[in-house]
Design brief:
heterodimer, A: 95 residues, alpha+beta, 5 strands, globular, B: 543 residues, Sulfite Reductase Hemoprotein, domain 2, Sulfite Reductase Hemoprotein, domain 1, five-stranded antiparallel beta sheet, 20 strands
Chain lengths: 95, 543
Amino acid sequence: MPRVLTGNRLETGDVLWWTGNDWSLHLNDAVALGDEAEALVARLTAAERINDLVLVDVDATDTGWRPRSTRERVRAVGPSVRPDFALPSLPVDAI
Amino acid sequence: MYKYDEYDQAIVDARVEEFRDQVQRRLNNEISEDAFKPLRLMNGLYLQLHAYMLRVAIPYGTLSARQMRMLAHIARRYDRGYAHFTTRQNLQYNWMKLEETPDLLADLASVEMHAFQTSGNCIRNISSDQFAGAAADEIADPRPYAELLRQWSTLHPEFSFLPRKFKIAVTGSDTDRAAIQLHDIGLQLIRNDAGEIGMKVLVGGGMGRTPLLAHVIRDYLPMADYLSYMEAILRVYNRHGRRDNIYKARIKILVNDLGPAEFAAQVEAEWAQMKPLGLDAPAAELARIVAQFAPPALDADAPADIDLSDAGFANWVAVNTHPHKVPGHAIVTISLKAPGEIPGDASADQMDLIADLAEQYAGDEIRVTHAQNLVLPHVRRADLFTLWQALVGAGLATANLDRASDIIACPGLDYCTLANARSIPIAQKLAVKLAPQEADLGELKIKISGCINACGHHHAGHIGILGVDRKGDENYQLLLGGSGAEDASLAKILGPGFDEDGIVVAVEKVVDCYKALRSDPAERLLDTYRRVGAAPFKEAVYG
């Protein structure tokens, strides 16, 4: 199952997704990680700039990544009750 | 209202500058996140699902118009134009930036407010009756005693690292609007046979993973001694409360493990040693605080009769106002529960309007309720129509207080990192479904939590809903029979859980069952449940 890396930016708390060489606000910019994931998490944790780093199980769909857990879908999109704040990662009704 | 003295202000200002330095050191990577996290939590700053969340303390739920305007300003300047009023009479901002928080806290301090002790294992914001100082049924205004508790517990070095968080509520009325039986300590002002005001002391109530009702450990405590008695309770808890298991660390577990009588005996023994040490506030200091809560000058000859020919207005007066202790006046509850909206949310524009109305019509006071509504405590009945018209224009005149659409809901999985399921969408769907018949249903308190921590008070709901995680999917348990009022009881699970749509249908079946079973239209759903038991409701829901 594909895994992507997410965390929250220290300065702003923004939800971020790892793109392979940087961070993005959008889930669909994320890259699937293989065996290198744990070492990457350890390196980024030690850097102390992104909080709550976690690897998330996702499914590949026609419209991009879809996290398996409701929690991560909510993180990717924004509060389901405030569609006006939704990020374009997933449609709100996909939560 | 209480006004900060030089010591109050100095403490808050110093804390802002201390946190500013801590934030800067964290941003510079001079301290680790592990070291910084407890420091930001001590200042009310959490990291939630989407951003940082700041929980602002509103002592005993009382605000001035000036403070409300500052909260609206902060919503615009640092958040996304709104804020969320909580079930502990506090306020939360959901879209905070760490780098901006010190400036925000300085803004708060400029109006005698702060965010510390809204997290952590310390004594949290003291809550109280939202009608305090105005209620026709109270013995005395409980807020001066809550204020002294605030001062005593603020940065109290002995009680900053308790086994677990600690919540105190104070009320001055037999009608319990502060849920004192569901607090770590509940205090009720009472009179003794000599007519002197003292306190009844309850300990060991709470919701969460292990819901329990509090026990009375002292029927009458002289007011002059209550601080030292509180200190004795906290000392016994601090000494014997469990620190090896977070789920057994609250004082309710200790009280029930020891037994209320033994716990009370240990408190009395501790108190006997402490009382001579002079820890209680001097009478002059308590009198200074009491004087600051003097009610606004109200005209007892103000007319009580008002024109109720407008049906919408008459309904709002009947549902959302309460008797005031001064004739010709009323206590107004502003519902933040328009069906379909998010319970407890208010826009900055709405907050500004409420500040204006409080200044103009309500003695410059606003209260936050634990049911996530707002109160204007001192309104002339002759001003009610003008006030109502202003509220109608801002979408704030929903007449649903304590009715089916006046639903308590925690932020749930839409915002909260602890949650297992979303609460708000369930509240929105239920409110829309039930609002058309809520006048017929009478008092019906629905309370929804998104996890076992019970911020949505589901154990105290006539109908309670608890969101849980079932193999990665949101699932909702249905509970019946709870109350947080003077007739307190803990709701019980009815049966297996439901998905998001199923829980709405299940609640509708409960309501239909109640309508078929009630003995007369005045019998509440809670009363029917207590009279007939769970079986008919179980049959109606599960067949």
